[in-house]
Amino acid sequence: MSNSKKQLRDVVIKFAGDSGDGIQLTGNQFAETTALFGNDIATFPDFPAEIRAPIGTVPGVSGFQLHFGDAHIFTPGDAYDVLVALNAAALKTNIKFLKPNGIIIANVSGFDNKNLRLANIEEADNPLENDSLNDFQVHKIDITKLTKLAVADYNLGNKESERCKNMFVLGLVYWLYHRSLDKTTQFIEQHFRKDPSVASANIAALKAGYNFGETTETFTYQYEIDKAETQPGFYRSINGNQAMAMGFLAASINAELPLFLGTYPITPASDILHELSKHKGYGVFSFQAEDEIAGVCAAIGAAYGGSIGITTSSGPGIALKTEAIGLATMLELPLVICNIQRGGPSTGLPTKTEQADLMQALYGRNGECPLVVIAPSTHSDCYEMAYNAIKISLEHTVPVMILSDGFIANGAEPWNIKTIEHLPAIKSNFIAKSDGLNNYQPYLRNPNLSRNIAVPGTKNFEHRIGGLEKENITGNISYEPENHELMVKLRAEKVERVAEVLPLQKFEHGSEESDLLIIGWGSTFGSISAAVNELNSEGYAVAQIHLKYINPLPLNLGDLVKTFNKVMVAELNNGQLIRLIRDKYLKDAIGINKIQGQPFMVKEIKEAILKQLNHA
Amino acid sequence: MHNLDSIDIFTSKDLETNQEVRWCPGCGDYAILNSVKKILPDLGQPKHEFVFVSGIGCSSRFPYYMNTYGMHSIHGRATAVATGLKITRPELSVWVITGDGDALSIGGNHLIHTLRRNPDLNILLFNNQIYGLTKGQYSPTSEFGKITKSTPFGSVDLPFNPLALCLGANATFIARTIDKDAKHQQEVYKRAYAHKGTSMVEIYQNCNVFNDHAFDVFTDKDLKLINGIYLEHEKPLTFDSGKKGIKLNGLEPVVINLEQHSIDECMVHDEKDKTKAFILTQFFDNNLLPRPFGIIYCDNTKPTLEDGINEQIASAKIEDKKLAFNALLMTKSFWEVK
User: Is A299 in CB contact (< 8 Å) with chain B?
Assistant: First the structure.
């Protein structure tokens, strides 16, 4: 039976089900197959807050959103074209983001009386039975039953059989978008290599799903999306935390210094620890400390000894590390602090995304304690920003804070692999060999105001450093009033001078001639870019600046900002970068803010900009 | 092993820094500083390979007065800083200088975890049973009922038994010494240096300004004979100039008069016996028993943290890191766009 084919430019799919349904695996498989096919793609895993919330309930819903197309894909998409709902709770949670006339693939067994009750839906209000879904194309398929039939020959228990249903769904969606089963088949064979009957059952379910699409007349169309035009090169899929770990590793190799990670597990940063722990062969010391404070302090100890000291955490952990970060600032040792931001304050929304730690990064320490603050703008950008963080930290002997977030950390995109020889050289200020003279001055400064660090074990250069204020040049304890002011200013000026090696700020879209400037930072890059792109193609003139370096700011940013009458700042917080822009450039900027634990939708930014443009 | 060339030889005098020592006149810290300076040249390691890491408190000024490498870090965290240094630079001799507030109060968590991980650090805990730097509040080792600035009606906290705490955290070396006994200190510090693993040395240190006379019962010429007992490996436990001994009634230590009992009845000290070590740490809570000084426990069989990590790194060692790294970037299924 042949179905009609329909050509599309881009598609957003949301896979949703119980956290035990294998939703993340299903989404990742579809993403990899689709990237391999040649579409551009953005993904957004949406984990439940609880580790194992009761099966079938709303808190237990796990989601995986992906957006793919034949042109550059900036975001995982505002609304879905397709919603796969394996149970009633998954439908209930996600239906509000399904586009009108969107496709619902619903697992009928997931809407039985028990599942309705678990989702707090009255039996009489079963959405598959009433007319509440009339605006959508609903495909009611008993996925559980069909899966069990498909795997009946493999002698699995009832539960094991049912667990293959994610593969049935994946097969069906592969058919719908004309994808090959090869990648996933290989994956299953590898994943279940110790249990061939489970592997065979999963492959059978995958094929059964595909064949269900092929042989039934459930779907009117099969869709095709052309490959995206992309730069030639080798690509892989990478998420933010993986890219961060790879960037740190690359910096360690190029600087020819051991990498020491002192850290404590915390969502959503732990995957960096997991990744780096695998790579001991490169001389990586990974140290899971007893708490956040010990993690950063051990990293400081390692940096003092001449290694690259890094620590990774999220907001609550950064709060605990605060005093130690002040110590590193005072010692003028290199240290990289990685904050994978999540919703706050306090424990807040651990699995959700937010950009509300900017002020903490800039100002959250006692005393005058500036450090370098940088923010990767996409998942793959974490690779080079992690690398740059170490480079800046070593070459300027200053702590560097990287602000990533849950969205960047867990979402993935195709990455044009940048091999290590394409990264700039790194030269540290460590001294491990004395020049034979007994003349070392620990706080004598280089032109960029960094200091040279004689590491313990270096003959003739014995010296003491500490958290007490120190005399310029000698490093001896000093309570002299003028010296303290001098040292405060030297430490601040050292951070400012980092701007001299940073790239000048460029427009992502538009120019000085545009009618309005929108500024963003960090993970909002995709949403803002897509919004501005759409507006400009609709005939508006909007300029976009996306900051990756926040302290110090790029040297030319002030000149760029001052040419605009209207400046907007979009961020996932209650207005933090905007204060900096107002403070530095006396510009009465207008905020676009969202604090819902979710990324911006493109339309939210578009509407906010349009409101200002139409005001003019 | 280090081969000292002539130029690496140094004396106690070489350990002086250009910084004026600023502890209160009469402070027990001077005696500890001098004892450490005295033994360092004898250890066979060049001066530039010693590192003293401290936290916050009077004792934590120590590194500024020692012409080796040193870091005055933040309150309670010296053990964590020292752990990071020792893991990455195992060839260095790393010493932690801390006090009863620094190690047992704000840094208590780091202390117990450092002990269980067993990096080869030498921890010198200056115990003066008071907060000196902040001018006289009670500490976690101050006695119950202690009247201080912050406890005008007397402390209602029960104090830590520091060495029992450390043994409970699986310390592989615990010892006790006292500021007024330079010779004993030096013997203990040498043993701490020799022990491969975390060495915890509790030092009774008199704060003559805020808690004077706290340890007089262990330093007074007459009192110390009946209140202290000096441990020697494989020797019977005797004190009071050999007139008294400690006998074990089952697991209960009791004092026996050696004029009436044979010395053969005495408990024999065995540094390697953890059960005996636990018993010795419990003397602290029994006023009828003398306080033990010396090496209470020493277990050389446990692996160190830095050896564990560095062995893993060595066994996984990659020769051509750049080549391997580029391959690593490609290991997750990649594709080519032409």
Answer: yes
Nearest-by-Cβ selection for A459 from B48, B334, B338: B48
> What is the pTM (predicted TM-score) of this model?
0.94
Choose which CATH entry (3.40.50.720, 3.90.79.10, 3.40.50.2000, 3.40.50.970) describes domain B6-214+303-311.
Answer: 3.40.50.970
Residues A12-26 have pLDDT tens digits of 999 999 988 999 999
- One-letter amino acid of A85: A
Cα gap A321→A316, rounded to integer Å: 9
Would you say residue B1 has pLDDT above 50?
no
Query: Nearest CA to A245 among A89, A392, A404?
Result: A404
- Chain A segment 190-249 residues within 8 A of B by beta carbon are 230-238, 246, 249
The answer to whether residues A141 and A168 belong to one domain is: yes
Strands A61-69 and A10-18, sheet pairing: antiparallel
**Shortest CA distance from A39: residue in chain B:** B337
Query: Is the minimum CB–CB distance between A453 and chain B shorter than 8 Å?
Result: no
Proportion of chain A above pLDDT 90, given as a percent: 92
Confidence band, pLDDT 50/70/90 cuts, at residue A230: confident
> Does residue A414 belong to any structural domain of this protein?
yes
A490 is a domain residue: no
Same domain, A147 and A210: yes
> Any idea what DSSP says for residue B131?
B
User: Which residues of chain A from 462 to 491 reach within 8 Å of chain B, CB to CB?
Assistant: 462-468, 476-477
pLDDT for the residue A220: 85
Q: Tell if the CB–CB gap between B92 and A305 is shorter than 8 Å.
A: yes
Report chain B's mean pLDDT, rounded to a whole number: 96
The arithmetic mean of pLDDT across residues B231-255, rounded, is 97
Interface probe for A, chosen from B6, B92, B102, B329 (most Cβ of A below 10 Å), is B329
Please say whether the dihedral angle defined by the alpha carbons of residues A28, A30, A32 and A38, taken in this order, is positive or negative.
Answer: negative
Could you tell me the residue range of the domain that residue A360 belongs to?
Answer: 236-422
- Amino acid in position A93: T
pLDDT higher than threshold 60 for residue A88 = yes
pLDDT of residue A1: 45
Residue to mutate among A304, A320, A417, A478, with most B CBs inside 10 A, is A304
* B72 vs A: CB within 8 A: yes
How many structural domains compose chain A? 3
Share of residues in chain A with pLDDT > 70 (%): 99
Q: Where are the beta strands (DSSP E) in B40-158?
A: 50-54, 69-72, 93-99, 121-127
From the list A126, A125, A77, A121, the residue with the least C-alpha distance to A102 is A77
CA distance A288 to chain B (A): 11
Contact B332 A230 (CB under 8 A): no
Q: Which of B309, B316, B321 sits opposite A253 (nearest CB)?
A: B321
pLDDT tens column, A175-185: 999 999 999 99
Q: What is the mean pLDDT of residues A113-139?
A: 95
* Domain residue extents for chain B: 6-214+303-311
Kindly state whether A302 is in contact with chain B, defined as any CB-CB distance less than 8 angstroms. Answer: yes
Tell me the C-alpha distance between A553 and A502, whole Å.
9
Distance CA A503, CA A195 (A): 53
Which of chain A's residues have a Cβ under 8 Å away from the Cβ of B329?
236, 246, 417, 419
Identify the closest residue of chain A to B89 by CA–CA distance: A305
Q: Which residues contact A267 (CB under 8 A, 6 or more apart)?
A: A314, A342, A350, A351, A406
pLDDT for residue A434 is more than 90: no
